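Table 4 source record.
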Amino acid sequence: MSTQSGSGKNKPEKVTTQTVVEMKRSGEKISMLTAYDFTMAGIVDRAGVDVILVGDSASNVMAGFDTTIPMTMDHMIYHTSCVVRGVERALVIADLPFMSYQVTTKEALKSAGRMMKEAGAHAVKLEGGRTISDTIRKIVDAGIPVMGHLGLTPQSIYKFGTYKVRAKEEEEAKTLIEDAKILEEAGVFSIVLEKIPADLAAKVTESVSIPTIGIGAGEKCDGQVLVLHDMLGLNKDFSPRFLRRYEDLDAKMNAAISNYIRDVKDGSFPNEDERYN
């Protein structure tokens, strides 16, 4: 890994799980984005993002599936290893994909171990609350940092049948707060809160000492995460309320490619300066 090579004199200070916990304590917001390949990971890392999530959302934005369900351990290990090679500073967290940790604790521990050993991830993320708390304890006890994920959990889409906001009702909201406390007690260093009411996210953030990372959960979370392709405008088909597009790369890339095609067609590329003699 890059943090172990060279003298380190010119390398940025590495973000660790303890770094993000300390950021909550000091009141510094945590920035987090997804990445799935070497080139984009390097761009995101050099821009200064704190955390990179190799999400199973690769299923949607990289592979073209409708859900995250098809992703396998081999898929996630491939994407994660590509990202790790492109990163010097950011903390790299990898999603454990559907059915890689839900069957048995033993299998979950093996999956987490593969993600660390084969892919070089710095931590793993699991979806769910109290039902997977024992599994989280085992993984953490093995020395593997774990990030939790509550609220809308995309791997359970066929159970819930919708991507609508979760925990709007009092009972589910109460359960979510309890689950957050259970996850903290189980040893997670942070929790993603996806698509829940902002007031509830604020209560969760206040009720735990570990950082909360929101996506569609309001401004009171300790940090925020977006899918890189969404916030850069590479994905035009996804426009949830919580998404802010910071650029329209779809249009810019389309224009650049169109200009290339034009230059090839009219013979102006390559010119004399772009050829070997």
